[in-house]
Structure formats: C-alpha cells, structure tokens
Model the fold of this input.
Amino acid sequence: MKLLHTADIHLGAKTYGRRDPETGLNTRLLDVRRSFEGLVQRALDADVDAFLFSGDAYHTADPTPTQQKIFAECLQPLADADVPLVLIIGNHDHPVTYGRASSLDIFEYVDGDVYCYRKPTASVQVIDTKSGPLQLIPLPWPIRSQILTKDEYRSMGPEELRQFIEETYVNYVHRRAEEVQNEEMGQWADGTEHQLSPNVPTVLAGHVTVQGAELSGSERTTLISSEPKFTVGQLAVAPIHYVALGHIHRAQNRNPEGQPPVVYAGSIERVTFTERDEKKGFYLVDVEPERDPATYVTFEETPARAFVALHVDARDAEEPTERILETIEQADVADAVVRVRYHVEEAQLSLVDQDRLRAALDEADTIAAIERTVDPAERKRRTVVTRESDLEEAVRQYVGQHDDLEGMEEDLVNAALELEAELEAEGKTAQSS
Done:
C-alpha cells in the first residue's frame, strides 16, 4: 500500500511576505500553496492509496476564507481521484475555547472520502482504499480544555494534567494495537464493524511530541518543553507498521534503525532564517505487512522558497560597498528571501552605497532586510534596517539594541507576528459578529 504523509502546512504564516500585485495575496501564502500543490501532484503521480495529513493546516485556529479556499482547492485533485484523505487535528487547527469547531471540521461535509479526527476513537478506524483496507489509529492533539470540562479533572495542576494526558494516550495506543493483534472488531467510516488483522497495513497518525525530536529553527523550546511527550517505544507498538506524525517542523525518522518508522513529515515551507539549511518536504510510504521490513519511507522535497542570510565584515575594507557586493555575487540569491547584515566602522558609513546593494539583490524574491552594525565599541551597537517600518522591523531593531537578547531575535519576531495574526483574526471575528 502506498501512502503520502505530510503535516504542518501552516497556511497564513506571513513572515517576510509582501502583497503580490497580480493576486493581491501575501507572497508567503502563495509560496505555501505552490509547495502544497507540488506534493499533491506527487501523490497523484505516485498513485497513492491514501493521503495522511498529520495536523496544522493553518497558522491560526481562525483561518480566513481565502486560506480555507486554498486548502480545499489543493486537496480537490485527490478527492477527484478517489484518494481517501485522513486529516488529524493539530494544535493550530483547534480553538482554545471548548465547544467551538476546529478549522478542519468543515471538510467532513465536502465531497470525497474525507476522514477528520479531532479526538481519539473508541476503536481502530478502517479506511477503504483501492488496494484494500487501511487500519488507522488516530492520535490528534490533546485538547486540555475538553479534559478540564469534566468535574473529576478540574482540580488538576499543569504538571498533573500533562502526566494524565501522557498515560491516557499511551494506554489508548496500546489498547488499539491489541485490537489489531487479537483480530478484534474495528469500524468502517459508516460505523459498521470490520474484523481487524495484523496482516493489514496499520498506521498511527498523530500530532504529538516525541522525546528527543530535533526541533526546527523556527520552533520555541520553551513551548515544546511544557507539552505531553512520548517515547518512540510507546508509539512504535506492534503490529503498527507506520507512525505518521505532525507538530515538529523538522523532517525526521525517530526510529531509523528499526520498525515501524516513527516519522515527522516536517513543514513544507521555511518560515524564518533559522530554517534556511533545513530541507522541506513530505514522505512517500510503502507498506507491505508480509515483507521484511514491512515499511519503506522516502523523503521528497517541496519547491520551498530558499532563504539566504549573508553576513559581511567590512571593517578592514577600503571600499566596503565592493566587499559587500562581492559576497552577494558569490551567493545564489535568485528568487530567494535574502537578508544582508554588514559590519562597518563609523567612519565607513558614507562609503556604503545602499542603492548598489539593493540593485545587486534585484533577482531576489524578497529583500527581508539590509542591516548594519556600526563600531566603535564604546558606543551602544545599533541595528538600522533600511526599509519602511513595520512590526517585524520594529522587533528586530529592538533586539539589535539590547545585547542581552542576542540569539532570541527569530523567536521574538515569530511570537510578535503570531500575536499580530491572532489579534487580526479576533478583530475580524468581532466585526462579523
């Protein structure tokens, strides 16, 4: 059985984006759509039996109609080809408020074989594919607000609640695996029963954190550290043949020497410059239970936008502009998001030709920033960004003026932009109500 596994699309992330003059949309939204369309086409070309999406379709729980439309349009070719779509709810897909619908719930009502899971199920789910049944154990993001609505759990502190979720999820996975091993009864999508078998492809699809997972450059360790965590052994339970995960944005197999593969698909587009060296893509999965090993995985890249970060120390250059231009010329900046940081002495400031620097970056898709650090050391270092001020620039300038925040720039920028997006979404909701 052939599967395509992806996650963390995050439609709506707009870092380093601008308004596209032809469509009126943010260029980063268009980048995500291009990568999404590319992986869908690869699924069709590979003639996959099912499409596994392991959570975080959007960057916020209140996506705009435009973002929802793009997500639906990208999936439509798969629905038209009768490829079953398995959608797992991630933390960015689900609103904090108990009782509100998730941003993916609407897809349960569209044409096509769509299976959307916002909570663990009472039995193993069975998906009908052209190559036979696929046995699915869904493990969506644990919604704490739902747990705390029950009287017996309201008094739990954060650490106690985290431990409770970990124990509950581990017991759930093991119980579902036992159902498959013992050939008990699972459920088709219409609720009718189906006898399970360890000789049928079995997948655990979840949006959770695995201990030891390597974080992507855009992810904040402080947030991940407070989440429920699971070991590879707690999820890689026989007779599960593949563990399809979302939530961590760096693509990786956490069980590379064993079976089943425990795989984070990673995000399909870069968000910040800390991800510039990371490959972005998805996994093609080949499962044959009677084969040894039963599962093979192949990582394939999306046409993700390149990020290029250049740093030039021109303090000893007689012609600092030429030194900076030389560095730009040696880099591949075509169609990339580019940031240039140069370091000069105060006496060299008048020798740096900003217009020539911008002209040299003409082939770039976006000039994220041209920043300068100026000596002498006895003065407080300043970072000046030569472009029109906005929230992102303001945060970067602030960080540049505070040495104690060194190394935290990308985290602070991401946090500010996420907060801005949430406030915009709340504002639109308030206006429409």
In short: The two ends are 47 Å apart (CA to CA). Residues 307-425 form one domain.
